[in-house]
Amino acid sequence: MKFSFGKLPPTYQLLLAGIIPLLALLYVSGQLYSEKENRVSLVSDYKIRVQESNEVVSLTGELEVEAEYSLAFALNKGRYSSLVIQRSSTDKWVHTLQASRDTSLTGFLNNTFRSSLASARAAQDDGTAGIDFQGTMDFYHNAVGQLSKFHFIAPSNIAMLQPLNAAVESKSLLFEMVTLWALTRNKIYVSLLITHDTPAIVSTAGDAWHALKTCEEEFLAKAPSSLVKMYHDKENAGAILPAFDYLDYAVIHHQFDSTSTAGQWWTTASGGIKVLNKQYLVSQQQVQTGLNHIYQSEIKARKLTLILLVTMIFLVIGFFIFTIIAVNKMLKKRAAASGKASPAEEGKQTHDPLKDNVSDLILEAIYRAGKTNGTNGATNGVNGHPVPASVMPGAHQGNKEAQPGSNGKITTSKQETVRKRNEATYLTSELKKPQENPVIAVNDDLANYADPNPEIVAATNSAAGKAEPVNENTAGKAERRTDSLTSQMNELIDAAAIESGRFNYHKHVFKLNDLVSEIVSETGNAIPSYKISLRKNAALSIYGDRARIAQVLGNLLQNAIDHCPDSDSIIVNLEEKGQTAVCSVEDFGNGIEIDQQEKIFGKFYRVNNANGIRHPGLGLGLYIAIEIIKQHQGQMWVMSEPGLGSTFYFSMPVSTTS
Questions:
Q1: Cα–Cα distance between 71 and 88 in angstroms, integer?
Q2: 63-113: pLDDT as tens digits
Q3: Superfamily of 508-653 according to CATH
Q4: What span, in angstroms and rounded, lies between the C-alpha atoms of 530 and 558?
């Protein structure tokens, strides 16, 4: 079956038309928020990289201090307790960096560095074999040099991080200068104190001088102006210049200043290192502050974006819902206006959906009955009751408006629709009238019928005090006919209420077995010619509408009686299967053909008897019954064999609440 958008109700058309832009809005919103989330993620990753860089600096600083204590211990066996404490501090930073996301750094720490560090420490602690001063210092120098490579952070190409590039590069250059100064200080100190190798001292001083000058020039060219000014101030007032003077002398004269002792050199170089360390900490703080500011700004922007997007989505959805409601109301008003009767009919009045449904169902029943009997349903009415011509204004209007040559017949579909509506409206209003003496009312109406039932007329004439004689048999038939019409009218009203969604339920927990006993007893007393046996009646409670369930069971019993002309035995059972109550009504009548078993729960369906004649009634009882059971989360079905009888079942959940 092809889908047709134009055939959908206007409300669904609006709904479908609005879903596409709403989905597009949700997609765009997701993309915008994802972009903000990515920006936050980038800044967060950069923060982690900067933090790891700072931790590398801390580890190199601890190694330099450990190298100093190791050298002092190697020279005079002193400060061993300080060395042990320092080793613990170094190990703490090693463990911290082992959690790094940089696999090359963790690989270096877990493999080469840790094994070499353990060997160097073991050699220091084993004094029997003597201590290799130069080897010990070379280990620490190499370790610091390799770690310094992991400190480097490349300038970011992300626009929001580029303002920090100058401060980040300055930080890296200052760390490189501090590291070079520390390595140079240690090498020259060992050479002056132990080896007295002047060429080695001059070579070390020359290499350090060139490297330091290169770093200094790059720092002064790239660093922010505040850091450059601070460096010049510290250079002129601190210990940086004296340290450079020592190196300048060695490079120019190709020998170290003989007036300086190893201790003096250590003190001078350490003073310069201390000044550079302070400068490094300032640059580190600038980077951290700037990065935190950018990170918080991005977090705030992400949160604001989320709030704006959610607000916009809710506003769009709210506007969309408001539009649908407004259009729906407008359509209902138009429908109500178009459904009002014209002034030539009954004046202005609005239609109750339930009454309209009842009228439609009556009309459908009339034409179904007429079609089944091979006649026009509009003439015969319901169950053979014709509709009085006096209440058919549509027909009269049709005659007045008929064109010449039409023999007085209505020729337009509008006039035919009005006539059919009037038939249904008449039957609805007359059968629903509250009257003190329904027999007299029936007689008055039947007086206008084209072909009334003589037995009913005689009975109703007697009830109205008219002269025609009436016997008890005739009155009983009239009463049964009136009861039948009333029952069918109630079925029509129930079916209409189900279709319009106004079929009410008043649910509570009650004992189903008590209800089954009552219905079986009442039906047996009312129709003593049938033997209704209650074989099994399990003590069960359910949550539901007691009156509606009674209506279902009563309908099944009445059907069993109506369809068993040759059998007077009916068996009722109530059993518990699992957590379900199953009630059955079994008869031994004609049974139901297999091709009809799937149709009997449909609206207006009536089963044929053995002679091929349809049973009387509207065919709404089982339709109403199965709808009631569905509203109780239950099921209804039938098992039947032609000629052997039928068993109708319905099931509902058992209530665990007393």
A1: 17
A2: 888 888 887 777 776 677 888 898 899 889 888 888 887 788 788 777 767
A3: Histidine kinase-like ATPase, C-terminal domain (3.30.565.10)
A4: 11
Q: Looking at the predicted structure, is the pLDDT value of residue 612 above 60?
A: no
| Tokens found for residue 356 | 């309209």
Kind and range of the H or E element at 577? strand 569-577
Hey, what are 335's tokens? Answer: 């429908």
Reported for 174-178, long-range contacts at CB under 8 A and 24+ positions apart, including other chains, are 174/219, 174/276, 174/279, 174/280, 174/283, 175/57, 175/148, 175/151, 175/280, 176/148, 176/215, 177/212, 177/215, 177/216, 177/219, 177/276, 178/273, 178/276, 178/277, 178/280
CA distances from 403 to 40, 367, 394, 638 (A): 83, 27, 16, 55
Contact 240, 268 (CB under 8 A): no
Residue at token pair 């100190």: 189
The model's pTM = 0.43
Residue 336 carries which side chain, given as an amino acid letter?
Answer: A
Residue indicated by tokens 């009463």: 479
What type of residue is 395?
Answer: A
Answer for the pair 647, 639: CB distance below 8 angstroms, yes or no: yes
Listed by start position, the domains of the chain span: 10-307, 353-500, 508-653
Tens digit of each residue's pLDDT (9 = 90 or more) over 135-149 = 677 778 888 878 877
CA contacts within 13 A on the Cβ side of 229: 3
